[in-house]
Amino acid sequence: MSVADPIARLVKELARLPGIGEKTAQRLAFHILKAGAGYAGELAGAITGVVRDVRLCSSCQTLTDKDPCALCADPRRDARTICVVEGVPDLVAVERTHEYRGRYHVLHGALSPLDGVGPSELKIRELLLRLEQSPVDEVIVATNPDVEGEATALYLTKLLKPLGVKVTRIAQGVPMGGDLEYADQVTLARALSGRREL
Ligand SMILES: [Zn+2]
Q1: CA of 40 to the centre of ligand 1 (A)
Q2: How far apart are CA 67 and CA 34, in angstroms?
């Protein structure tokens, strides 16, 4: 080994992160070493803290360090409308539009039988439980406009409509195959306001 073992160990761990190659990992490791013990402590603490303190909101399933999360605890938000999204970044994207004042439900994925993702891998049971506990007027399905997102929307519609819930789907405008997370604010706001009933 050409570098000291502790450096090699750090490089190896950093290189496991998405988008970080061997070279970048090395650059980061030397940067951390140079920055000193104070920074290393902060970084290590932040990494440990995120795993220790962040959990799922027991209601909407978003990532939070408080349960219920700030969105669920906010009495100004309309509890009778639920916007269903695939992931937390999608929730953040919808929030960025400042157009939506209801609550959310995060599925943590989309149906994808080929990848072994069935309904039980998603937070669908939790959604049904929520609807049982407090009735809602509308569920807006804001899954991504790709094959998995559409399949998930269809599945949710079949599941929720018999319960007497109005199910709507965000309008086209978010490009097909696109990702909600990367849609610009105006496009996403328009897609939300132009939603149609399923
Ligand atoms: Zn919540």
Answers
A1: 32
A2: 39
Residue 106 C-alpha to ligand 1 middle, in angstroms?
Answer: 9
Å from CA of 134 to ligand 1 middle: 14
**Segments forming the whole domain that contains residue 42:** 5-53
Residue 58 CA to ligand 1 center (angstroms) comes to 7
Residue 81 pairs in a beta bridge with 138
Cβ–Cβ < 8 Å for 163, 136: no
- The answer on 88 and 41 residing in a single domain is no
Close Cβ partners of 33 (under 8 Å, ≥ 6 residues apart): 7
Bridge partners of 84? 105, 141
Instruction: Round to whole Å and give the CA distance between 109 and 117.
Output: 8
Whether 42 and 130 map to the same domain: the answer is no
Q: Are 145 and 176 in contact (CB under 8 A)?
A: yes
Kindly report, residue by residue over 128-175, the tens digit of the pLDDT: 999 999 989 999 999 998 889 999 999 999 999 999 999 999 876 666
Q: What is the CATH number of the domain that holds 188?
A: 3.40.1360.10
Are residues 73 and 44 part of one domain?
no
Shared domain check, 145 and 107: yes
